[in-house]
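Data deposition worksheet. Section B asks for the primary sequence of the deposited chain exactly as it was used as input, without tags or linkers unless they were present during the calculation. Section C holds the resulting structure in token form. Section D is free text for depositor observations; keep each observation to a single sentence. Incomplete worksheets are returned to the depositor.
Section A, Depositor: J.P.
Section B:
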Amino acid sequence: MTAENTTTGATLLRQVVPPEKRELTELHVHLGGSVPIYRLWEMGIARGIRGVAHSYEDFIRLLHRSSENTGDLDHYLEIFDIIELIQAGPSAVQESILIALNGAYRTGGMTRLGPGGEGGDPEPIFTISRLELRFNPMKRTGVLFSRGEPSGLFDVDRIIRAACEAAEESEIAYRGGIRTGFLFCFGRDMSWEVNRTLAEKVRYWKKSQKKILGVDLAGPESAMTLSNPAELEQMAELFDIAAGDDLGRTVHVGETPHVNLDTFIATIKALKPHRVAHPVVAARSFWEQNDARGLELLAERDICCELCVKSNILTKAIADAAEYGRFIRTLDEFGIRYTFSTDSPALQLTTLANELEFLLQHAAVTPEQLLRAFSTAEQATFIKG
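Section C:
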């Protein structure tokens, strides 16, 4: 799947999206993957960050997530330390959020991008009018978590405040054309001390900052599977501290073989998410072992699934377009709601329009399924109103 598609592909999507659906809601986008590579290069140069890359060309090759340098979730995530360092600090977070929102509004409905992620389509099919951004504020403090330090160069309180101010400024600039808010991610690759600090910060700031929509659990599943009941209980406590009953809950779980079906089920029951990202293990267990417990749990609790097509294929969570079609049909079979998002559009040189065209071109989704997913996103968003 490439960022540049044929005119026929563009026509397919344009025919499917009716005039009244030209403003879409996107639920699953990471801030670290939403700033175009050429802008990250400029930010790194401006901040004098050492060792970003030997050249601009090397930088693009390093950060661009493709089939040549990915292969599984761990490899997919390995360059995010560089991005988080470039985005460290209140001003860098503000700049990143403004760029991400501008990009979503301008290029989300485009079918062609330039080599650095700049928009290249003069006639976008739609705009993104509501966008949920997720990131980990602790990873924007400038700290190297591999050294086990719980705090960094920058104040996390100022980072959270700066993010919320940037969101409000963007909405004013667009005159209501785009609305946004944040999911703050606990890290599977962070210590319990750091994750607890984040939980307490969210609990404090959610009282005054309406742009804080919810919490998430993200990062490499290999680093923390939560198969240990004691660890799962700890994470559930952090979700309760941060989200309580007034914030949305979503969780990355079941994307890789590191998490089996039993752990997937236990995680859903303990963390009580409203939405779940990439729950591939639930479908694969049904296909391979005829074990429908995961799918039945998602249906029973009316949990919405966040599907990110290109990243799921890059990490080998889903093999190809044909298997993606099977995945979607399986969710429909069990009456499970789902939405489509880009995950890290800038790093994959993709757009939401590009992802949807890919599905249509390969007959992995029908127009009816696509329109239903649009409506589901509008209903499932944590952005109120």
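Section D:
The mean pLDDT is 90.
The chain has one domain: 7-380.
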